[in-house]
Design goal:
By secondary structure, the protein is an alpha/beta fold. It folds into 3 domains: 44 residues; 100 residues, Urease, subunit C, domain 1, CATH 2.30.40.10; 284 residues, TIM Barrel (Alpha-Beta Barrel). It contains 15 helices and 18 strands. Strands 1, 2, 3, 4, 5, 16, 17 and 18 form an 8-stranded mixed sheet that branches. Strands 11-12-13-14-15 form a 5-stranded parallel sheet. A 3-stranded parallel sheet has the order 6-7-8. Helix 3 crosses helix 4, helix 6 packs parallel to helix 7 and helix 8 runs parallel beside helix 9. It starts with a helix and ends with a strand. Bound molecules: zinc ion (ZN). The site of zinc ion has 4 residues, from loops. Zinc ion binds next to loops. Keywords: Hydrolase.
């Protein structure tokens, strides 16, 4: 009697192995065919040799004299005396610094106006048209990759990748996930809740945010974001400065709601980021597995230690945190802005003390003029970080963070934010010494002499 179940187990194991073996053989064959295709494809493609440059590779803060060989959309070799096709295009960098294209880990490409205007003034097609311009200008500031931290930007990513207009690689969070009366509940004061006869807001319908209350609504909204093409989720667990009806200090979402978002992010192989200012909101988010905290100005040392212990990234937006309040802000928004700002310097000191991984974020939005301030983020950061720290934040560290989106990342063929063989050919060539003084990057029109994304040269003023 004993042997029967054992035999049964063996047969099942054998079947399992055979099935697995067969699947593995098919996968190997497919991979081999794929590799042949990639190789054949790559060999057809034009090579570009960038020589006479000093390379900042995104991971080490010293410069290396090396040539960089690009083929198709990838960096294929790095070093001296590289073997190069006779027909290769050659670019002499004139001894300048070559850096990986920059990563802005906190943008809002589609939030082109204050929330009340997004609700009342701008149709989806207007927002899309404007965001196309925002995208192109970001690329021309050297940002070859951005993580969009909420808003209707999935269509922007698709349109860029489909070739309609130039722009960075976009890791879109899709619609913000907010509770009713949360940071991103953009409805007008006169619009009742949709369970009380109100209508879903225009901004919600075009994909800027989804208001969710309860576990089931969170599951649905989070899954819908991934269905639409989001690479990660964005939630708010505190109120926000730019919100009209959300106090900064309130804790947002129940444990069941946070757990539902975490579950969906995990099942999609990705993660969620959280907009938060206070200890409790950050701490709860970490308990549910959040991988990046946006803002965090009013955190105390215990929670910063908890971030370090759990390997949670901090995305610092220095310009929006430490400058004067934007003129468009109301008196209430201004008050919240000043409150958050009051904690910023101390939070940064503690974040440095506990060696948090800090990524570069500009958080520019609100108006055409405000987007132009993206390059001013370099100057604002220079007041709190060293130039090498900032360069790492804006390249490999930001890339590491956005690559936590795992299988949802559309750009998995190579690494981002570094210069090495097998990385994407996303590069900028700089006039000046950015590892000593990042202020040269605040004038990209003048000081970025070459901008390449995905092997395509978008700017060359050499
Ligand atoms: Zn933001």
């Amino acid at each position: 009697m004993r042997k029967v179940p054992m035999y049964g187990v063996c047969v099942r194991a054998l079947r399992f192995d055979r099935a697995r073996g067969f699947a593995a053989a098919i996968a190997l064959l497919a991979a081999a065919l794929g590799m042949l295709q990639i190789k054949a494809h790559a060999e057809d493609e034009q090579q570009i040799l960038i020589s006479n440059v000093r390379v900042f590779d995104g991971e080490n803060t010293h410069l290396v004299d090396a040539d960089v060989l690009v083929q198709g959309n990838m960096i294929v070799a790095f070093g001296s005396d590289l073997e190069v096709d006779s027909g290769a295009q050659r670019i002499d960098g004139g001894g300048r610094v070559l850096s990986p294209g920059f990563v802005d880990a906190h943008t809002h490409m589609s939030l082109i106006a204050p929330f009340d205007q997004l609700e009342n003034e701008y149709t989806g097609i207007y927002v899309g048209a404007a965001a196309g311009q925002v995208a192109e200008e970001m690329l021309m500031r050297g940002f070859t990759t951005v993580r969009d931290a909420g808003g209707a930007s999935i269509g922007v990513q698709r349109a860029i990748d489909d070739g309609w207009f130039a722009g960075p690689r976009v890791f879109s969070s899709g619609a913000f996930l907010t509770q009713t009366s949360g940071h991103l509940d953009m409805r007008d004061r006169t619009n009742p809740h949709h369970h009380m006869g109100g209508e879903h807001s225009h901004a919600q319908r075009i994909g800027h945010f989804t208001a969710v209350d309860g576990e089931a609504e969170m599951l649905g909204a989070a899954r819908q974001n991934f269905r639409n093409g989001a690479t990660q989720l964005k939630l708010a667990t505190n109120g926000g400065i730019s919100a009209n009806y959300s106090p900064l200090d309130i804790d947002q979402f129940t444990d069941a709601e946070l757990g539902a978002a975490a579950h969906v992010a995990e099942t999609f192989g990705s993660y969620f980021m959280v907009h938060a200012y206070y200890d409790e909101a950050v701490s709860r988010a970490i308990d549910f597995g959040a991988r990046s905290i946006e803002h965090g100005h009013l955190m105390t040392e215990d929670v910063i230690k908890k971030m370090a212990k759990n390997d949670v990234y901090l995305v610092v937006e220095a310009l929006m945190s430490n400058a004067d309040a934007p003129p468009q802000f109301t008196a209430d928004q201004r008050e919240k802005f000043e409150l958050a700002k009051s904690g910023f310097q101390e939070m940064i000191r503690l974040a440095k003390k506990h060696k948090l991984k800090i990524a570069f974020g500009s958080d520019v939005f609100l108006s055409r003029e405000a987007y132009k301030l993206q390059a001013m983020e370099w100057l604002a950061r220079a007041e709190i970080f060293s130039a090498p720290e900032i360069m790492l934040q804006a390249t490999s560290i930001g890339a590491e963070l956005i690559e936590l989106s795992g299988p949802r990342n559309r750009y998995r063929e190579g690494r981002l934010g570094v210069i090495q063989p097998g990385a994407y050919a996303d590069l900028v060539l700089i006039d000046g010494e950015p590892l000593e003084d990042v202020s040269v990057l605040a004038d990209p029109g003048k000081n970025l002499r070459l901008i390449m994304k995905d092997g395509v040269v978008y700017k060359n003023t050499l």
